[in-house]
TrEMBL record, chain A:
One of its GO terms (cellular component) is chromosome. One of its GO terms (biological process) is response to UV. It comes from the Eukaryota. It comes from Lobosporangium transversale. Belongs to the UVSSA family. Transmembrane segments: none annotated. Keywords: Chromosome, Coiled coil, DNA damage, DNA repair, Metal-binding, Zinc, Zinc-finger. This is UV-stimulated scaffold protein A C-terminal domain-containing protein. It is found in: Chromosome.
TrEMBL record, chain B:
InterPro entries: Rad28/ERCC8/Ckn1/ATCSA-1, WD40/YVTN_repeat-like_dom_sf, WD40_PAC1, WD40_repeat_CS, WD40_repeat_dom_sf, WD40_rpt. One of its GO terms (biological process) is protein polyubiquitination. PROSITE patterns: WD_REPEATS_1, WD_REPEATS_2, WD_REPEATS_REGION. WD repeats lie at residues 51-93, 106-148, 192-227, 250-291, 345-377. GO terms for cellular component: Cul4A-RING E3 ubiquitin ligase complex; Ddb1-Ckn1 complex. This is WD40-repeat-containing domain protein. Pfam families: WD40. It comes from the Eukaryota. Keywords: DNA damage, DNA repair, Repeat, WD repeat. It comes from Lobosporangium transversale.
Length: 737, 402
């Protein structure tokens, strides 16, 4: 039980810095240091407790919030700390929740946070230690019955509670899956038979409809009788010297009548089809068979097989609507279900195999029937049949045309210029509802008038193009012209090109003297003045700055585990300059060979920046205004200066720099030295604590500041003076002698 | 650390048992030592809780002396509840439920109950006083009013002698006179006049049948012999001045007195008042012992607040502990004779309004204005369940050490 003075000192400074930082989140390294010291001995824990209780009694909600967070950390770990805190638990609740008429100090935002945190902590501690530490249970009851605190929807704050919640969720999903699995298993047992029946039925339909390879009669029917349709088009090319294989194996995988060509010996040996007789089996020829995509099997529905087709359709519909999704669901459930949890395992394996088999056979049957032209579109018979029937009953009429016929007797010819939907004809003065108008037959639409010059140009262009190809220029004048043309800058056409080479320009060349109504007769020169000509040669150019295409994200690792997603040009207002980072947000350095390697922990350039960022955030969160304590300037390193300035002005400068504009120099107030101001600006806020002694800014104060400022008073004075003088003028004016 | 202490305790107990076996200590000394140990070890009992039956503040509680089994509580809402403290005693975690109750809507009190007391000789009867200016005598078995005394003034407290057979109830009410109600006739016998302000507390001496002590807002504490016609014996004086015993200048406290208690042997009187002081008076001489109990006491509410004196005298001979409820939601435990603060019991979330002692198990019951009755019991040294082990262990992560 000896007190290590040195440790005690460090502990007290650490706790002071942590609690006075005013940040929303504690600095993990500092917390770790505190824990490290506290772990050494129980005496240190006691000291920490005393210090924390002192900090907790400060009349500043930010300090209390940080202290509560640190208390939560230590409470979880140290038994001695628990004993100590439990003994004073009502005081703890007084200071953090504000029970017993102890209102929490400002700022209000942090006071509410502290309260919420303490309530959550009480809830979790009660769940864990309530049976051992009666005071916590009593505190929980007190909050529940007297403060009417709702403990139901609290966000877990301690790690354990968080992990427990996660575990519970996992357990729930696992159980859900298990339940689903059991349901699916029962369903499978029930329905697998139905599905297999259906597929068997379909297979028999296929057998009826599609001839088999071993069915000689059918095959002969195909190959000996020339088919009228050009479904199978054969192209015979002159063969090369070597024997060719029909290498497209995929074509003859399922199709029963696809010819399986093998090497010629085999063809010779097994030649049931009499290919030789048809003069096709020769090794000199290459046989390419193209299957009709729409009806690859070449089975047409007719009176004979209508019954079969209708059965097939029925089955197909069943497969598509019911069985296919069902089987996919089963597979999904089985895949997701934990194999270990399913008892017995052999049962699971069997079900899985069954599901896979079913899926395969269902898919097979589905594709086969689609090959036969049975799909959801032809559910009630083939398509062409459908349209024929329609034609019998209804006559297809152009409704629009008939209506117009009735009205006018004839339809005017529409402007059939190809429309360009992306480019409206007149972007600025587009007629409202032009799209609707286009449908109106009476609307002629905006016709494009092709000017003569443009026409000529186009003709010239075409002629030039042809001349370029056919006849290159040969004479001398053309050569120099070509040379000049090569050098000449290509500029888009504008008004100035009309006058760009004119030294002088005449106007009103008619020879008639015109007299202007106001300006009278000209001086007779009829020449445009030099200044005007100069102005006419000028060209309007709209400057479009080249912005970088891709603005990188800051990717600074934030305390919530995400990476900062702000995109700024040069520097993020929160996390400083944007540097390359890896997927964890660690800073990377560019090596000589162009790779990125993570920067070591030693050169931590952003440690202070992080702190400043947190501070800024805390300020913003706390008050919305930047009324921070700028009292002590303990740290004023160069880094601190840099990041203190990374403010709005800096970002503005970045943008200006990127746009190639000049930097905006801030206006300096008169009578204040620049150095003085700089010094003031460079001061780093020691902590993010909100100054609570400053009275909150009221609208009255704001108005007073405006009204009471020297400039406004001056202007008022000026106005009054002016009024006075004008009044005196008026009196003099109206005085008659 | 805690476990070490427990082990230490066990070792000490074992050692004393051994000493007892060897005949080195006398049985009564051993018993006193053991009880002393238990009393000083008193903490909030984590395993026992009393059901929250009252919807308002619990103003007063009392445990009967006959069996030391039943607890009665009176609330600010006028309701009265009776608890059986032996209920499910063997269970690990017990919640004591109210076994009988009377609410305001029944024939109970219209105002808040200010004091409840068991009939000292039998738990078949108890008396209650209320701010609705009545004192009611109840039949416990039927939970019915047997008799009502109307005093026409707010009643702050009442008392029955635990020794005498006269069956008189002394009343402390807003009326300066102390009226005596006779249980035998159901009528008032006579009044004791002398106080000039509201009487906040009365108490019978456990030693003399007819000796009564009372404290009032006129800052005086008076001792009465109810048999005499000029019944006031003396008015205690805080300065021990040589003035006559009934002098007007005598005052026991500088402000109102709201609690008087006799020691169990009847030799001393403890009084407490709004001057945040507790005083110990020697009844043989009627003098202030000038024991200093420090400045921890907070006592500012106008209601009866009696300090609790542990009824057993522990070693060294004739030394008591006194428990004083303080307004800062704690109970202060003093050594009666030398005034040193032994322990401060914290944990209540409301102001502690009354205390009751259960001699058999050396437990204290405290009533609070947060609607709760708490149980304070000697720390159970053999309590060694898993939960305690969980709470006792440190859970530093390994990463904290480097």
């Amino acid at each position: 039980m000896t007190i290590n003075i040195e440790e005690r000192e460090t502990l007290s400074t650490l706790i002071l810095t942590i609690t006075k930082s005013g940040d929303l989140y504690l600095d993990p390294t500092q917390v770790k240091q505190v824990k490290k010291i506290c772990k050494k001995s129980d005496t240190n824990v006691r000291i920490a407790y005393e210090l924390l209780m002192i900090q907790l009694q400060r009349k500043h909600a930010q300090i209390r919030f940080s202290s509560t967070q640190l208390i939560a950390e230590l409470f979880q770990r140290s038994h001695v700390f628990r004993e100590l805190l439990v003994a004073d638990y009502s005081i703890f609740l007084q200071l953090t929740v504000g029970i017993h008429q102890n209102p929490l100090p400002p700022p209000v935002l942090f006071a509410n946070k502290t309260k919420q945190l303490a309530i959550s902590l009480t809830n979790e501690w009660n769940a864990k230690y309530g049976s051992v530490y009666k005071q916590i249970a009593l505190g929980y009851d007190f909050l529940k019955y007297h403060l009417k605190v709702d403990f139901t929807n609290l966000v877990p704050v301690t790690d354990e509670a968080r992990s427990a919640e996660q575990r519970a969720q996992e357990e729930m999903t696992r159980r859900l899956r298990q339940k689903k699995y059991e349901k699916a298993a029962a369903e499978m047992e029930e329905k697998a038979e139905d599905i297999q029946d259906n597929i068997r039925k379909m297979n028999s339909c296929f057998e009826i409809l599609v001839p088999k390879l071993d069915d000689e009669a059918a095959l002969n029917a195909i190959f000996n009788v020339p088919t009228t349709e050009k479904d199978i088009s054969t192209t015979v090319n002159t063969a090369e010297t070597e024997t060719t294989h029909n290498d497209d194996d995929d074509d003859n995988r399922n199709e029963d009548q696809a010819i399986e060509s093998d090497n010629d010996e085999e063809i010779l040996r097994h030649d049931p089809l009499g290919v030789h007789e048809n003069a096709l089996g020769s090794n000199r020829y290459k046989l390419t068979i193209t299957l009709n995509k729409d009806n690859p099997v070449d089975v047409v529905e007719s009176e004979d097989n209508r019954e079969v087709f209708s059965t097939l359709r029925e089955c197909y519909r069943l497969v598509v609507k019911k069985h296919w999704p069902l089987v996919m669901d089963w597979l999904d459930i089985l895949m997701k279900a934990d194999r270990e949890a399913c008892e017995p395992k052999t049962e699971y394996d069997r079900l899985l195999r069954l599901a896979i088999d079913l899926k395969k056979s269902v898919a097979d049957a589905k594709s086969k029937s689609e090959d036969l032209g049975v799909n959801m579109d032809t559910m009630y018979g083939p398509n062409d049949h459908d349209s024929d029937e329609d034609n019998e009953e209804f006559e297809e009429v152009d409704i629009l045309a008939s209506r117009n016929d009735k009205k006018k007797g004839k339809q005017p010819k529409r402007n059939t210029q190809p429309s360009q939907p992306k480019k409206p004809r007149n972007a600025v003065f587009a007629m409202q509802g032009e799209d609707i108008l286009k449908d109106d037959p009476t609307y002629a639409g905006g016709t494009r008038v092709v000017s003569r010059r443009q026409e000529q140009e186009s003709i010239e262009d075409s002629s030039r193009a042809t001349s370029e190809v056919s006849t290159p220029p040969i004479d001398d004048a053309d050569a120099t012209r070509q040379e000049l043309l090569a050098r000449a800058p290509v500029v888009p056409w504008d008004d100035d090109l009309a006058v760009w080479d004119k030294k002088e320009m005449a106007f009103n060349t008619s020879g008639l003297e015109r007299s202007h109504r106001f300006l009278g007769v000209g001086d007779g020169s009829n020449m445009v003045s030099d200044a005007t000509l100069e102005r006419m040669k000028m060209r309007t150019r709209i400057y479009s700055p080249q912005l970088p295409k891709v603005i990188k994200a800051c990717r600074y690792p934030m305390s919530n585990g995400r990476l900062c997603m702000r995109r700024d040009l040069v520097r993020c207002p929160y996390h400083g300059p944007i540097v390359p980072r890896d997927e964890y947000g660690q800073i990377q350095r560019l090596t000589e060979d162009g790779r990125y390697v993570p920067v070591e922990e030693e050169d931590k350039g952003l440690d202070d920046a992080q702190e400043a960022a947190l501070i800024d955030r805390a300020i913003a969160a706390a008050s919305g205004s930047s009324s921070s304590l700028r009292s002590s300037a303990t740290r004023s390193t160069s880094k601190a200066i840099i990041k203190d300035q990374s403010s709005w002005e800096d970002i503005e400068d970045d943008v200006h720099l990127a746009l190639g504009l000049e930097k905006i120099e801030p206006k300096r107030k008169r009578g204040q030295g620049g150095s003085n101001e700089n010094k003031k600006k460079n001061k780093k806020p020691a902590s993010a604590l909100v100054n609570i002694t400053k009275p909150p800014e009221s609208s009255r104060a704001r108005l007073l500041r405006h009204v009471g400022s020297k400039s406004s008073r001056d202007s008022v004075e000026q106005d009054r003076q002016m009024e006075k003088t004008s009044q005196s003028k008026d009196t003099r004016l109206n005085r008659w002698r | 650390m805690n476990s070490r202490r427990i082990r230490c305790n066990v070792g000490h107990v074992k050692n004393s048992f051994f000493q007892l076996e060897l005949g080195l200590v006398r049985p009564d000394v051993f018993q006193k030592r053991f009880l002393n140990k238990r009393i000083t070890d008193i903490v909030l009992d984590p395993s026992t809780s009393i059901e929250r039956a009252h919807t308002g503040a619990v103003n007063t509680i009392d445990i009967e002396e006959a069996e030391a089994r039943y607890l009665i509580s009176g609330g600010g809402d006028g309701s009265i509840h009776v608890y059986d403290l032996d209920e499910s005693e063997r269970e690990e975690r017990r919640i004591i439920k109210s076994i009988a109750s009377v609410n305001r809507s029944d024939d109970g009190h219209r105002g808040g109950v200010s004091r409840v007391r068991w009939y000292p000789f039998d738990n078949g009867m108890f008396t209650t006083s209320s701010f609705d200016s009545t004192i009611k005598v109840w039949d416990t078995n039927a939970m019915e009013v047997a008799c009502t005394f109307d005093l026409a003034n707010k009643v702050y407290s009442h008392a029955m002698s635990s020794k005498a057979t006269h069956g008189l109830i002394a009343t402390a009410s807003a009326d300066p006179r102390i009226r005596l109600c006779d249980l035998k006739t159901g009528a008032y016998t006579h009044s004791l006049s002398g106080h000039r302000g509201t009487v906040l507390s009365v108490e019978w001496s456990p030693r003399h049948d007819y000796l009564l002590a009372s404290g009032s807002t006129d800052t005086t504490v008076r001792l009465w012999d109810i048999r005499k016609s000029s019944s006031c014996l003396c008015s205690l004086d805080l300065h021990n001045s040589a003035s006559p015993p009934l002098a007007e200048s005598n005052s026991a406290h500088t402000r109102a007195v709201n609690g008087v208690s006799f020691t169990p042997d009847g030799l001393y009187l403890v009084t407490t008042g709004h001057d945040d002081k507790m005083r110990l008076w020697n009844l043989y001489t009627g003098q202030n012992t000038l024991t200093n109990y420090g400045t921890m006491i907070r006592n500012q509410f106008v209601h009866n607040l009696s300090p609790l004196i542990s009824p057993l005298s522990v070693a060294p001979p004739s030394s008591y502990y006194v428990f004083h409820p303080s307004d800062d939601r704690s109970i202060l435990m003093f050594d009666l004779m030398d005034g040193s603060l032994v322990k401060r019991l914290t944990g209540s979330y409301g102001r502690v309004t009354a205390l009751a002692w259960r001699p058999r198990t050396q437990e204290i019951y405290s009533a609070g204005n947060d609607h709760d009755i708490l149980v304070w019991s000697p720390k159970n040294i053999d309590r060694n369940n898993a939960l305690q082990a969980l709470a006792d262990q440190d859970t530093w992560s390994d990463s904290d050490s480097d």
